[in-house]
Amino acid sequence: MLLSMPAVPAIMTALVENPEGIEESSIELAGDDPERLEEALDALARRGLIVRHSGLVSLPPGGKALTVARKIVAAFSDLKSLTEGSFMIRGVLSATEYYRCLVHRDTMFAILAEDGADRQQLARVLAAEERQGYVENIDIAYRVRGGVKEKFFPFIPHHHYDDFVFMHSRAVQNGQGLLGGPAITVVKERYLLANHPPSIAEQARRYMRENKPHILSRVRNEAFDIIWWYDRY
């Protein structure tokens, strides 16, 4: 129940910094909602995690209370990172609103990492999305001539998927194309295809519009960029 209360981390963070106590009115909340603050204070007090008295709030005496408060703050921080990671991954994969788009996995990770996201957290979130059936993995093979890797498409509109030739997995072995001869090798790149319900996809796009509009614009611009196709061929 505590994890569903956005005021809890604000309260516990303030008390970690001031374990001797602070005035309840000094606790700052996003949105400044006194009802949410009162609800969270009451829930924490009922569990013995804080002490309330005459408009003041403090941690219970003893070092254990401070340790518990720090763990609560850390748990909320992890939850926030996972939630933001989920919104960002879903937002990138569903950025092209009116058609589906294959997104190069490493490109997505690089874009989000440039914005400060943690790659390990992103990998955890993506694994959860895959387990829920929200994301499909697709491997696409590219030819490499003379050991020089050709550039790959970072985003592939799904209606161009039929332009690719399907290959049996045995056609690529340790990066060596069995049909290509010694001068041509074949490498695989991992792509992701979103299968989110419309409501989840729209929620993620709204998050990106409000918090990461530069990422949303970049994905849409590059996915629509037909120059990729002319330049490739």
Write up this protein.
With 233 residues, the protein is an alpha+beta fold. It has two domains: 2-61, Arc Repressor Mutant, subunit A (Orthogonal Bundle), CATH 1.10.10.10; 90-232, no CATH class. Helix content is 47%, strand content 18%. It has helices at residues 7-17, 34-46, 63-93, 105-114, 119-131, 198-211, 213-224, 227-232; strands spanning 22-23, 51-53, 56-58, 101-104, 135-145, 148-149, 155-157, 172-173, 176-177, 184-194. The model is unreliable at 174-178 and 226-233 (pLDDT under 50).
Note the main sheet: 5 strands, antiparallel
Number of H- or I-type helical stretches: 8
Give the ordered list of helices and strands: HEHEEHEHHEEEEEEHHH
By secondary-structure content and strand pairing, the structural class works out as alpha+beta
Instruction: Assign an overall shape.
Output: elongated
Low-confidence stretches: 174-178, 226-233
Helical fraction equals 40-55%
Portion in strands: 15-25%
- Biggest sheet, spatial arrangement of strands: 6-5-10-4-7
- Average pLDDT reading: 79
Overall domain count: 2
Cα-atom radius of gyration: 24 Å
| β-strand number | 10
